């Protein structure tokens, strides 16, 4: 099984004119994990940044862990391979390290990302994410992707997938919105109990409806205590929960703040778990000492951050989904537990 680097760079809402430079700065600063998606419409720019650094000899393809996602309008089994191939072409890569199902619900196929009816609600497709998963499993078999996973799945949806008859590949991770205002405690406990990692998007929280997580007095107090930035505190919070973190930034100073540039260079040789009957080795380049890894929050500080939970969700795509959609969350589903 592939191992996901604990810290990555998110590229959501990174404008095409900014993201190439952000990726290059991130690689120079030590990032090796890049989170992408068809929906972000900037994979060509991400790929340009990656290829630039490969050509410069800063990294090799094997040093990197690149993630992309299958969008909801491509859930029909016959569309999955073409969708993956399109992302690979944009990224200028031969394979993805991880391919995620972006959301559990399928939308009407077409060129529009959000096909809407006259009432502004998403037009669903008659697909089941279990069938979509089978097509994603085929991508692993053919070598287009090394591993597959899900995003924005709640407890019930993930359990249904894990209990699928004839499941060939388990999801490697469940990528969900997660930050101190949305701690996802129960969902994380469930995922980890089933050997599914959790990846936190929007870990810095951002601002919405007047809420600015990094300005919270508790975060500010803890940042001063450890002589770290608020961003580094909330990233460290997730790392200590064994949650993978993908902060998004196109600002060079913020990127370098999240992963400290300098110190020492070395390389580790790691062995992947047996996959599809074969053993594979891959090199994990540890090029920089990561600043968020050189300190530890106390148990009290961890609990103080956990107490900030207010079930505050910033990603609100599910509000566009019709309650009649077969993947619409149940009462304790995505809108309440994790959607994540």
From TrEMBL:
Listed SUPFAM superfamilies? NAD(P)-linked oxidoreductase (SSF51430)
| Cross-referenced Pfam families | Aldo_ket_red (PF00248)
Question: Which domain of life, per UniProt?
Answer: Eukaryota
> In this protein, which residues make up the domain named NADP-dependent oxidoreductase?
7-260
UniProt keyword list: NADP, Oxidoreductase
The record's InterPro entries line, in alphabetical order, gives: AKR (IPR020471), Aldo/ket_reductase_CS (IPR018170), NAD(P)_OxRdtase_dom_sf (IPR036812), NADP_OxRdtase_dom (IPR023210)
- UniProt similarity note: Belongs to the aldo/keto reductase family.
Q: What is this protein called?
A: NADP-dependent oxidoreductase domain-containing protein
Phylogenetic classification of the source organism = Eukaryota, Metazoa, Chordata, Craniata, Vertebrata
């Amino acid at each position: 099984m592939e191992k996901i680097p604990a810290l990555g760079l998110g590229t959501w809402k990174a404008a095409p004119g900014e993201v190439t430079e952000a990726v290059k700065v991130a690689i120079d600063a030590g990032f090796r994990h890049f989170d992408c998606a068809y929906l972000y419409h900037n994979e060509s720019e991400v790929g340009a940044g990656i290829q630039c650094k490969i050509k410069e000899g800063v990294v090799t393809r094997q040093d990197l862990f690149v993630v992309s996602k299958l969008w909801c309008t491509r859930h029909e089994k016959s569309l999955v391979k073409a969708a993956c191939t399109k992302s690979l072409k944009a990224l200028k890569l031969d394979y993805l390290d991880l391919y995620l199902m972006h959301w559990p619900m399928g939308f009407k196929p077409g060129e529009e990302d959000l096909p809407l009816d006259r009432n502004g609600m998403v037009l669903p497709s008659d697909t089941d994410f279990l069938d979509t998963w089978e097509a994603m499993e085929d991508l692993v078999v053919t070598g287009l992707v090394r591993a597959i996973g899900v995003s924005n799945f709640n407890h019930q949806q993930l359990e249904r997938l894990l209990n699928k008859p004839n499941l060939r590949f388990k999801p490697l991770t469940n990528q969900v919105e997660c930050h101190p205002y949305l701690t996802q405690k129960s969902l994380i406990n469930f995922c980890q109990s089933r050997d599914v990692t959790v990846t936190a998007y929007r870990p810095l929280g951002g601002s919405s409806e007047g809420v600015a997580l990094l300005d919270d007095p508790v975060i500010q107090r803890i940042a001063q205590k450890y002589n770290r930035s608020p961003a580094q505190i909330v990233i460290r919070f997730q790392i200590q929960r064994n949650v993978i973190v993908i902060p998004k930034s196109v600002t060079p100073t913020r990127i370098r703040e999240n992963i400290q540039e300098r110190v020492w260079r070395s390389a580790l040789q790691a062995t992947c778990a047996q996959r599809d009957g074969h053993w594979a080795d891959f090199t994990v380049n540890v090029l920089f000492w990561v600043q968020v890894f050189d300190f530890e929050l106390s148990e009290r500080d961890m609990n103080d951050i956990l107490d900030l939970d207010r079930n505050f969700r910033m990603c609100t795509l599910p509000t566009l989904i019709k309650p009649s959609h077969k993947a619409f969350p149940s009462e304790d589903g995505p809108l309440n537990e994790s959607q994540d």
